[in-house]
């Protein structure tokens, strides 16, 4: 999801799920059924992969974390040695990325995913500008 959002790590860790106290930050537009993420402002991310990743995590993985139904944030710890888990912290995300680095053998970090997202968005936007489907001003506003 870091690659799909292109947002800061802290912003991503603040994405909330629906519980009694609040509604989910991943929402669906009534007019066209597209999903988007509320991050600080009304940022629209309609990538189908986002929906698939979100639903996969929310349905198949998050419920396995004891106490997750009471945690308002999407990303939670999955420590089976504790009685209850908590929202994921920045330090824990950095640890996860260090562990990924050890497996894949090349440097990867949460901030680097923002650059990857930006590069892919630029390629997509440049193509749409060349096809006359959008303007530079609109693509920058979308970014």
| Rounded radius of gyration (Å) | 17 Å
How many helical elements?
A: 6
Label the overall shape.
globular
Strand content: under 5%
How many structural domains can be distinguished in the coordinates?
1
Major β-sheet profile: 2 strands, antiparallel
The number of E-state strands comes to: 2
Cα separation of the termini: 17 Å
* Helical content (DSSP H or I, runs of 4+): 40-55%
Structural class: mainly alpha
Mean pLDDT: 84
Succession of helices and strands: HHEEHHHH
Low-pLDDT stretches are: none
Task: Provide an overview of this structure.
This protein has one domain. The longest helix has 21 residues. It has 6 helices and 2 strands. 46% of the residues lie in helices and 4% in strands. It is mainly alpha-helical.
Keywords:
single chain; 143 residues; mainly alpha; 46% helix
Structure described in brief:
The protein is mainly alpha-helical and 143 residues long. Helices cover 46% and strands 4% of the residues.
Secondary structure: elements and pairs:
Blueprint: H1 2-5, H2 9-13, E1 26-28, E2 35-37, H3 48-61, H4 90-104, H5 110-130, H6 136-142
Antiparallel strand pairs: 1-2
């Amino acid at each position: 999801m870091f690659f799909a959002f292109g947002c800061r790590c802290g912003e991503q860790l603040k994405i909330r799920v629906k519980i009694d106290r609040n509604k989910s930050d991943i929402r669906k537009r009534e007019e066209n059924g597209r999903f988007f993420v509320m991050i600080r402002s009304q940022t629209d991310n309609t990538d189908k992969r986002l929906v698939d990743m979100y639903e996969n995590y929310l349905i198949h993985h998050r419920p396995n974390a004891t106490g997750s139904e009471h945690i308002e944030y999407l990303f939670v710890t999955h420590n089976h040695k504790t009685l209850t888990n908590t929202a994921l912290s920045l330090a824990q995300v950095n640890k996860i990325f260090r562990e990924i680095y050890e497996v894949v053998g090349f440097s990867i970090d949460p901030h680097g995913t923002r650059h990857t997202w930006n590069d892919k968005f630029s390629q997509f936007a440049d193509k749409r500008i060349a096809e006359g489907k959008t303007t530079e001003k609109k693509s920058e506003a979308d970014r």
